[in-house]
Amino acid sequence: MSISNHLINEASADGEGKIACPVCGANSFTFLFKKQNETFVRCESCTLVMINPRPIFKDVLNTYNHQYSGSYAIKGEKKLRRCRRWVNRVKNRYIDHGRWLDVGCSVGFVVKAAIEAGYEGYGTDVEDWGIKYGRDTLQLPNLRQGILEEQKFPDHFFQIISLYDVIEHVPDINSLVKELKRILAVNGVIDIITPDIGHWRTPRDLSSWNEIKPSEHLYYFDKNTLSLLLEKHGLKIVSRRFHTKPSLRVYVKHA
Q: 140-159 b/e with 16+ CB inside 10 Å = b?
């Protein structure tokens, strides 16, 4: 299935694009604000903040294009240095060998850093320009275009999976997390970074927060809502890293 068909099918259960809370299944929401004609709400049961009704899905796809990936590639040296820090943190704390998958890899800087650190690096992304750049310019052969579920990796294939500023973008987060559970090695670890709506520096006026991005950031997690999502699929947060920016940074393993 193509990425566009996947997104359209995921939204088609309701003609207006309205969905139940993907974390707890509730259908009661508190209106928060509108931005660029998109409605932001809070689930009255688990408190997940999300866009609901859902954006038109061609608008979601349009946030990932040549310009998006190209702006990332231009900052290559700076981005690669940061990726090396992330990779070395996992290597020093958890697992120092094996297969590393970066979901939402863009042009592949995390994959490159993982290979430099001695891992067998893989990456997936929906944007084809970034994948081509990574293969041709960075010489990364194991990059694949499309959503993770389309790749059909073997069960328990990856010792490490990273999702850096990715999970908040994914339309069908339950499908994603179910797949993460399936392909994660028995003693593997998942490294997740996502904006933290519960952080002490997140503005009380959420509409002014720079992480509020219509048609791009679909969900806004705190530790509780992310934990609930992961627990539904047999995963759990085992460690959380403090950061002064409103960023939720967690390591995840099988429950």
A: bebbbbbbbbebebeeebbb
Cβ atoms of 151 and 3 closer than 8 Å: no
The residue assigned the tokens 């928060």 is 32
Per-residue confidence (pLDDT) for residue 7, from 0 to 100: 38
- Helices then strands, counting H and E runs in the chain, come out as 8, 11
What pLDDT does 11 receive?
40
Decide if pLDDT at 151 tops 50.
yes
Structure tokens at 134: 């990574």
CA atoms within 13 A on the CB side of 24: 19
Tens digits of residue pLDDT in 183-233: 999 999 999 999 999 999 999 999 999 999 998 999 999 999 999 999 999
Q: Give the CA radius of gyration of the chain.
A: 18
Question: How far apart, in whole angstroms, are the C-alpha atoms of residue 182 and residue 51?
Answer: 28
Q: What mean pLDDT do residues 151-180 have?
A: 97
Distance CA 199, CA 130 (A): 31
Backbone angles phi, psi at 167, to 5 degrees: -60, -30
Locate 68 and state its tokens: 């998006």
Distances (CA, A) of 222 to 124, 247, 250: 25, 9, 11
Quick one: average pLDDT of 49-78?
72
Ordered domains of the chain (ranges, CATH)? 65-254 (3.40.50.150)
**How many angstroms separate the CA atoms of 167 and 215, rounded?**
14
**Tokens read off for 236:** 């759990």
